[in-house]
Amino acid sequence: MLETPWPKPHFLREAAPLPLAKRMPEVEKHFDEELRAFKEKLLFMGSHAEAAVTRSLEAMWSRNDSMALQVERDDDVLDRFEIEIDELAVNLLTKAPLASDLRMVVVGMKVSHNLERIGDEATTISRRAVELNREPALLVSVDVSGMAKLALQMLKEALDSFTQMRPDIARSVVPQDKKVDAMNRQFQQELSRTMVQDPSRINACLNMMSICKSIERVGDHAANIAEEVVYLYEAMDIRHAGSLSADGHSSGGRDS
User: Considering only CA atoms, which of 79, 13, 74 is closest in space to residue 43?
Assistant: First the structure.
């Protein structure tokens, strides 16, 4: 099994123990223990994904190549988490769980997928940061830190909503994704203008544009997790709420 050298995440330390839905006979008690292990592994995966994004951004701001390269090397940890969680989920699904347990397992698999994709974005940020560090600092009016802080806050709150069984928190996360999207569009436009005005900075601007897009995708995945939390605890699918046209067809949405 995967060993995790990191301390327990804040949302795991602060949360009350996830309670049993009801008293179960001995034959079903083992299932509940396995479900608890499944949840805890998912929370440790969330902790690692959140830390990976934080470290990749810090590596960019501090121009720290060694930190960026470490984030890249650690990416396979999230890949292994996803595989282990999928294996646990398949095992749990064979035991015919209750409807609420079934939702937990299915949602857990989807959350795991989003966390693995967040890890991929952290790796992209780290790689681009190393490229940026090979050139003079890029002096533009783009303030990536504000967008990064918002995306990280979305991720933290999405994970908290899962742990604390708070779909109301999850619902408050989803609309913030539009703010991150708008900031990314603004930054892409500003960086494009910089490339036109100073062709010598094209490579640096392209790397920064990629970093901004990765941060925007972290926000997308955080919103995806929040939507899954609402489904888990309210049995309501809000993934395309407000994005369907009158004839019921989608008018667009986030990347999966």
Answer: 13
